[in-house]
Structure formats: C-alpha cells, structure tokens
Amino acid sequence: MTIRNMIQTTVFGGVATLALIAGAQAAPEDLVAAAKAEGQLTVIALPRDWCGYGALLDSFKAKYGIKINELNPDGGSGDEVEAIKANKTNKGPQAPDVIDVGLSFGPSAKAEGLLQPYKVSTWGSIPDEAKDADGYWAGDYYGVLSFTVNADIVKTPPADWSDLGKPEYKSGVALAGDPRTSNQATMAVYAAGLAGGATDAAKAASDGLAAFAELNKKGNLVPAIGKAASLAQGSTPIVIFWDYNGLAARDAAKDNPKIDVIVPKSGVVAGVYVQAISAYAPHPNAAKLWLEHLYSDEGQIGWLKGYCHPIRFNDLVANKKVPAEALAKLPPAESYAKAKFPTLAEQAAAKEVIAKQWDSVVGATVAK
What we know:
There is one protein chain. The chain is an alpha+beta fold. It has two domains: 6-142 and 271-328, Periplasmic binding protein-like II (D-Maltodextrin-Binding Protein, domain 2); 143-270 and 335-362, D-Maltodextrin-Binding Protein, domain 2, CATH 3.40.190.10. It has 13 helices and twelve strands. Helix 2 links the parallel strand 3 and strand 4. Helix 5 crosses helix 6 (201-218). The radius of gyration is 21 Å and the shape is globular. The relative contact order is 0.19.
C-alpha cells in the first residue's frame, strides 16, 4: 500500500444493531460461532510489515482458530476493488471478504454496490467524519503530516509550518513527492495553508502555494523528492512525511543519524485508510468478526505499534488504554488531538488548485 462492549442483535444481514454493555468488548458469541462455521477469512493487500498487520493477522488466527487466506500482499487500493468486481460470482479463494483502501475508494465502492454495511461494537467512538453514516465503510487508521528531521544536521527542528522559512533551513526542506501528482505532497501544501488560518479548502490550497513559493524564493525548498535515504544522507535534512513513514525511517536509521519526527503545532492534516466488507464476501461473518477484532482496543493498539494511528486513538488515550511504551515511541499524544480529516470534497478542491497552479505560483520542479 503506497500510505482500519456490545451485543449484536442482528448478525447475518443488514446493518448491525448494537446495545451498549459498559466495560465489555468481547465479540458477540453468535457472531463468533457463525464465523467459525465459515472457517476462513480472505484478506487482500495487507503486507505483514505495514501498520503491524502481521501481528494482527496472527492474533486473530490464534484467538478464533479461523484460517486466513492472504491475497496479493503488495497490491494497492485499486487492486482490492478490482478483485471484488472480478469475483462477484466466485466464492473461491480469489474472492476477498474485506478490503483496506484509501479514503476515496470507500464511497466510490459503496456507490458501485460493492460493499455491505456493518457497524462494529465500538462504532460510537469512531469520528463521524471518518465513517459512512450507514456503515458501509469506516476509517481504520491514519497518519498525520509531520516534519522528519535529521537531528545530526538540524540542531533546532521546526515546530510549525511557518518555521520552515527560517534562514537556518536553507536548502533543507523537501516534499515527499511531486505536489502535482503525489497525495502526500499535495496534502503538505494544503496543510501549510490551513496553518495560516484558511478554512475553505481552495483558499487553504492557495495560501499553501504562497507559503511554498516563499520557501522556494528563500532557497529553503529542495527541488527533489525527499526519501528516507536522502534524509539519512543529509541532502534533504527535513522531509515532510506522513508520521508513520517518518517513524519507520527513524527506527531503520538506529540513531545513525538521529532522526526526530515532529507533528506541527497547527495545520495537522490526517490521511485516512478505510475498512469495508465486500458485498460478495464468501465469508461475511468471518469478515464482521475481523472488523470487531480490528476496532477493539486490542486491534487498535496493534495498529499503533505499527506506527499507524488507529482511528479511535483519541478515545483510547482519553480512557488511558494506550500502553505507555507505545506512546513513548510517538510524538506527544496531544499533537494528534487537533488532526483534521479532510473530506473527499475538500481534498478534491485542494488538489485541483495545487495541481494547476504549482508551476505558475511556486515554480519549482520537484524531481526524483
């Protein structure tokens, strides 16, 4: 992927109806029995080294004794949706039960009739802006844009977007892609505009372009795509990454060089993946049980250990459910409380402005 306490009264069809039982988080017994009777779960495009998925898959198998068929681990969101389409009448091993895709693919797959609704037991603690009201998809985890810094070179790291223009960061700031085509880079420009106070998506995009034009004019913007290797080598000592990419780069470097990951004080933008069940799932109850596993405290913390912020992160922190050792490896928890989850309409509006005006306003060619 280039960047998912109650008793259920309805298991086998439609949107689950839930009733709260304080303190309980075990999956409904009738759902567990139905899933075990199906005997298998088929997932797709879940690399074991992405977001802690290896441990999550293994813990599901160990807990419920259900076999997991892992399809195309290196596939992307488009591959997942196409696999549903190609296997509508096929109940064999190539038909996925569940998908984990970029935000835009959830609504579009719903519109095409490719998904079935299901609301997990912890549905109420998933932010409204990160889920389909009818239960067809829900955000599962996210990253926020951050400054990943080679601390051996940059002694005083930037704390906010406005800091990137300081003289000490000359020839030091890089985007992680071409903002005309890369979502990660586009959202970085948008985030810079939000940090300046804009609320309208098009205005934020315009203000972000102005901010990057100023960085380019000052010579602070490096006209190259920032990567973990260029970060470590020092040719791009500050890279604007999704935080999970930055944290992974930090661990890979093993303090040679020392790498810091800083979530900016303002303009905190989240990029969300979503989880959904195929409308043609051969094992629909195993799929629902898998979602219960992922959205439980255990599953959410499993994603966090893989540096992908679970969608219920703020709720887990508020209820002191996050292990101290996991929090210690992350930027401060309060940094994430201000995260904005741009809607699809906001993303589209921002991308249109940035893609069309980057060349004329900023005038920097971000090359590989």
